[in-house]
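Hmm, how's this folded?
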Amino acid sequence: QVQLVESGGGLVQAGGSLRLSCAASGIIFSFFDVGWYRQAPGNQRELVARIFSGGNTNYADSVKGRFTISRDNAKNTVYLQMNSLKPEDTGVYYCNTNRMSLGGRVDYWGQGTQVTVSS
């Protein structure tokens, strides 16, 4: 049973920092691409950052230079370091990974962690 558990969200003032964690069980995270997504009220879920199994990363334009995604394979955990936070970064942050099965793509999501940035 694959489980992803996010933590680290909270309330922070604009300009502040948070570090989100996504801990995995039932899967060896290092073998898979992992993404951080966020969803603001009334908006669709959007990809914020992704780290590939080989270590490459990519970011949404809105967070480039402010957010850093990384992984600790020994802890089977992926992190999202968020600096210079803005009110528009507010939302529920989810981590995601996926694999292919005979039936097609299978996505795994955590329960989400709330990030609120006050102005």
